[in-house]
Design goal:
By secondary structure, the protein is of the alpha/beta class. It has two domains: 8-251 and 457-477, Aldehyde Dehydrogenase, Chain A, domain 1 (3-Layer(aba) Sandwich), CATH 3.40.605; 255-437, 3-Layer(aba) Sandwich (Aldehyde Dehydrogenase, Chain A, domain 2), CATH 3.40.309.10. It has helices at residues 43-62, 65-81, 83-94, 98-123, 156-168, 181-193, 208-215, 229-238, 265-277, 296-310, 331-347, 397-404, 420-429, 466-470; strands spanning 8-12, 15-18, 23-28, 33-39, 126-130, 133-141, 144-148, 171-175, 201-203, 222-226, 246-250, 255-259, 287-293, 350-353, 356-357, 365-366, 368-371, 388-394, 412-416, 434-437, 449-450, 462-463, 471-478. The chain has a seven-stranded mixed β-sheet, sandwiched between helices. Helix 6 (181-193) links the parallel strand 8 (171-175) and strand 9 (201-203). The radius of gyration is 25 Å and the shape is globular. It starts with 7 loop residues before the first strand and ends in a 16-residue tail after the last strand. 50% of the residues are buried. The model has no long low-confidence stretch (mean pLDDT 96).
């Protein structure tokens, strides 16, 4: 996989082409260096990519399941061989530390077997005997699906849509985030090495106009999206009145983490940090709202959290001593968090640890903790996508749960507590698609469904349940020959 620039950044029908749109580039946000350049796909090229996928669909869906699996498992093998190079590219383009990006590529490899198991369990073939016939449940692919990828996990998250879609027999037009085009290009080159036929996956690089051209094309049969709630809502409106198209939306969260009756304060502080600040707060499952009981123990937890957060290592992805926090995706994103913090301060919030933009021209930022207890009613229900943690001091557990539910989102939530009774109570009342007990809320298994409710999704959970939206069920009653029933229905004479 070359690190050299190439004009040919669009993959259409197995051929790398030069974009016919405007110039774009990708920047290493930690060092403010251009690492990729190209031109966006024009609307005509997006149409060509869809036509290519349409032409490839009949052939690819006719390929035997075993032969499709053979190519997909070859892809997993090649991912393992290119693990170091791909992890380096992800780190270079996102600013994430290498320990994180190596884990991301590992998750991409693991996704293959998980997706195969999910396909067999959730969308395989079932045969049931019945008098004089057999009843079958089978599944068919939708056809051509558009996949929109995010920047925070530019390898793993699109892979979570692409692999199940290919297993089911769909063909794909993939539009990655304009902030991570290089990762997408390298992953597509690995698919080519694996022997994926031309047109089965097409890559269109570009910004919002490219995305609009893809989403609005009448020839796609579905769209799988991971990204912001704002864009997801726009797509949902765009697809309104089109029940024939499958739409799977995986969006953000304003996730609560509640603390009550704990004995190991260091463990609590660790899980808060992992929940709030891993990936520099750029996970949709990150804790955004921390509920700490008013009182002596709460004071101790908060004091230790502030000190531990101050000591978190911030640095470059390739530092010999690996940092916990790398750069955010861009300087723009970092400045957006600074502005969000100021907005809360202007409303009357109390800064406990100031979030700071560390280096001009980069995405480097230090984590912030801000107490919003006195302005609860005024706190915007927004996802601040970065390392800014809002603290709520509470006296009533049920009131804390109610405030945790006081959001349009519903992705992840968690309780840190030694009491199982408290957890059972919390579980019954909390409203979220991922609910954890005594574990960071950023921890989600690919062998389980991943998704939320409300503004976090549209009831199309991904991960293990991605198989559900990649194929549609068909019920059949089948017999070897036409035969008269032993007893005719009333009113029939033959």
């Amino acid at each position: 996989m070359s690190t050299n620039y190439s004009d040919k950044v669009q993959l259409i029908n197995g051929q790398w082409q030069t974009g016919l749109g405007h110039d774009i580039s990708s920047v290493n946000p930690a060092r403010n260096e251009i690492i990729w350049q190209g031109k966006t796909a024009s609307p005509a090229q997006v149409d060509q990519a869809i036509e290519s996928a349409r032409s490839a669909f009949e052939t690819w869906s006719d390929v035997s399941f075993d032969d499709r699996v053979s190519i997909i498992t070859k892809f997993a093998e090649l991912l393992g061989e290119h693990k170091a190079a791909l992890a380096n590219t992800i780190a270079l383009e996102t600013g994430k530390p290498l320990w994180e990006t190596l884990g991301e590529v590992g998750a991409m490899v693991g996704k293959i077997n998980i997706s195969l198991n999910a396909y067999k369990e959730r969308t395989g073939t079932v045969e049931n005997p019945m008098p004089g016939a057999k009843a079958f449940i089978r599944h068919k692919p939708h056809g051509v699906v558009a996949v929109f990828g995010p920047y925070n996990f530019p390898g793993h998250l699109p892979n979570g849509h692409i692999v199940p879609a290919l297993i089911a027999g769909n063909t794909i037009v993939f539009k990655p985030s304009e902030l991570t085009p290089k990762v997408a290009e390298e992953v597509l080159k690995i698919w080519q090495l694996a022997g994926l036929p031309a047109g089965v996956i097409n890559l269109v690089q570009g910004e919002i106009e490219t995305g609009k051209a893809l989403a609005s094309n009448k020839m796609i049969d579905g769209l799988f999206f991971t990204g912001s709630s704002t864009t997801g809502h726009f797509l949902h409106e765009q697809f309104g009145g089109q029940p024939g198209k499958i739409l799977a939306l995986e969006m953000g969260g304003n996730n609560p983490l509640i603390i009550k009756e704990v004995s190991d304060i260091k463990a609590v502080v660790h899980d808060i940090i992992q929940s709030a600040f891993v990936t520099t707060g750029q996970r949709c499952t990150c804790a955004r709202r921390l509920f700490i009981e008013a009182g002596e123990q709460g004071d101790t937890i908060l004091a230790q959290l502030i000190e531990a957060t101050k000591s978190l290592t911030i640095g470059y992805f390739d530092d010999e001593e690996q940092p916990f926090i790398g750069s955010m995706i861009s300087e723009k994103a970092a400045l957006g968090l600074v502005a969000a913090q100021q907005k809360l301060m202007d409303l009357g919030a109390n800064s406990l640890l100031e979030l700071k933009h560390i280096e001009t021209g980069t995405g480097f930022i230090s984590p912030g903790i801000i107490d919003v207890t006195d302005i609860v009613a005024d706190v915007p229900d927004e996802e601040y996508f970065g390392p800014l943690l809002k603290v709520y001091r509470y006296t009533d557990f049920d009131a804390a749960i109610d405030e945790g539910n006081n959001t349009s989102f519903g992705l992840s939530a968690g309780l840190l507590s030694d009491s199982e009774d408290l957890y059972n109570h919390f579980f019954k009342r909390i409203r979220a698609g991922i609910v954890n007990w005594n574990k960071p809320i950023t921890g989600a298994s690919s062998a389980a469904p991943f998704g939320g409710i409300g503004a976090s999704g549209n009831h199309r959970a991904s991960a293990f349940y991605a198989a559900d939206y990649c194929a549609y069920p068909i019920a059949s009653v089948e017999a070897d020959k036409v035969a008269l029933p032993a007893t005719l229905s009333p009113g029939i004479k033959l």
